[in-house]
Specification:
By secondary structure, the chain is an all-alpha fold. The chain has one domain: N-utilizing Substance Protein B Homolog, Chain A. Helices cover 66% and strands 0% of the residues. The chain has helices at 3-20, 29-35, 42-65, 76-91, 97-111, 116-132. It is globular, with a radius of gyration of 18 Å. The termini are far apart.
């Protein structure tokens, strides 16, 4: 298992624990940093804080592109894996989209249901496509005529 894979898995553990306890996404991060056993890598911290800072936008993307599944119906592991990967896809330029997707799929294979890897792959692929799709320029508006 690569170093960043371990850091992502640790971020998943923290996000999952926070959600299970009904806390904000980074609600247990301070506790984990204080205990520091096992040590919390800076990349893990950046993932947890990044997800927490953008959770509204991330969840909106997931809700928009997940076909037939609301966020509440998704297994908690999948939901938090997806949040980490969407954060990496949307906000981190140093992580190629394909790497973020592959890592999430591998963690889903290891930690979630038999159907999860395919679901995670499809949803993240769609998010990646939408992220890279150029936005068409808006039509210039006609100047309005002055009213008398």
């Amino acid at each position: 298992m690569g170093a960043r894979t371990k850091y992502r898995k640790r971020a998943l553990d923290i996000l999952f624990e926070s959600e299970s306890r009904g806390l904000s996404a980074d609600g247990t991060l301070a506790d984990r940093l204080e205990v520091n056993d096992p040590p919390v890598n800076p990349y893990t911290v950046s993932l947890v804080k990044g997800v927490a800072a953008h959770i509204g936008e991330i969840d909106a993307l997931l809700a928009e592109y997940s076909v037939g599944w609301t966020l509440d119906r998704m297994p908690a592991v999948d939901r938090n894996l997806l949040r980490i990967a969407v954060y990496e896809i949307k906000y981190l330029d140093d992580v190629p989209d394909a790497v973020a997707i592959s890592e999430a799929v591998e963690l889903a294979k290891e930690l979630s249901t038999d159907e999860s890897p395919r679901f995670v792959n499809g949803l993240l692929s769609k998010v990646s496509q939408v992220k890279t799709k150029p936005v068409p320029p808006s039509e210039p508006s006609e100047p309005s005529e002055p009213t008398e």
